Amino acid sequence: MNVYSDSTREQTYSVDGKIYKNIIGSFGTEHKKRIIIGAHYDVCGEQEGADDNATGVTALLELARMLKGQKLNYRIDLVAYTLEEPPYFRTENMGSYIHAKYLKDNNIDVYGMASIEMIGYFNDDKDSQDYPLGILSWVYGNKGDYITLVKKFGAGKFVKAFSTNFKESNQIKTETFTAPKFLKGIDFSDHLNYWNFGYSAMMITDTSFFRNKNYHEPTDTLETLDLKRMAHVIDGIFMSLINLK
Q1: Is residue 151 included in any domain, yes or no?
Q2: Residue 89 exposure: Cα atoms within 13 Å on the Cβ side
Q3: Percentage of the chain with pLDDT > 90?
Q4: pTM reported for the whole predicted model
């Protein structure tokens, strides 16, 4: 990201005697209020992790290229997190917890955060989409042919504005899923730590294991991804960011 960003830095910390790093690339550094766009770069076990979460990291790298030289209304920090996967998930060792806590401890003005978590798997077949509650198929359909904007009730101004912009960009079929924080799957990514520190945060996802049965398996490979639709997701994120007022 340092080729494109105004500044790039490493946020280092230690877990069990080992050093881990978040990588942060910043754009529009003349602005005080900032937006965090994050994705984890670690993988669960010895596997490629193509959808989970090489797609998210790819999005960060492409967004870095696209944001270079853009006139922005906010500072945008692209953050690649370490230690999202088990056994560190839901612990204070998550890279996103370290980053969110840093923001809070230093009273940094944050408009909001979006986690890019698995954006490359799509399936147009009937019954290719599962849900935490079966009744949801009546609302969203049974085909895994869309990207999902996941948010909790009372998500905040950033999430509302970003979601509106994303859908209006008309880049890809999009569904917005709003639910209580305790519903299974709604907090299965780095945005949960920003929720815990009181920030307006959301997740952009292909719904993970509710659709992609290669989740946390050696079969999560590049060949299973729909790169064209993934590119449209990234374009939607970019257009959402540059049009935020």
Answers
A1: yes
A2: 13
A3: 95
A4: 0.97
Structure tokens at 200: 């307006």
Q: Name the helix (H) or strand (E) containing 12.
A: strand 7-15
Would 2 be classed as within a structural domain? no
Q: Nearest CA to 75 among 132, 24, 146, 128?
A: 24
Nearest to 174 by CA among 141, 152, 199: 141
Beta strand 75-81 with 18-27: parallel, antiparallel or unpaired? antiparallel
Which tokens is 120 given? 């490359």
Q: Would you give the DSSP letter of residue 40? A: E
CATH number at residue 41: 3.40.630.10
How large is the angle between the packed helices 227-242 and 157-169, nearest 10 degrees? 130
Residues 79-126: tens digit of each pLDDT: 999 999 999 999 999 999 999 999 999 999 999 999 999 999 999 999
Using CB atoms within 10 Å of the CB of residue 190, give its burial: 0 to 12 exposed, 13 to 18 middle, 19+ buried: buried
> Is the Cβ–Cβ distance between 214 and 144 less than 8 Å?
no
Please tell me the total count of domains within the chain: 1
Beta bridge partners of 21: 12
Number of Cβ atoms within 10 Å of the Cβ of 244: 18
Domain range enclosing 128:
7-242
Amino acid at 55: T
Angstrom distance (rounded) from CA 171 to CA 228: 11
Q: Return the SS3 of 166.
A: helix
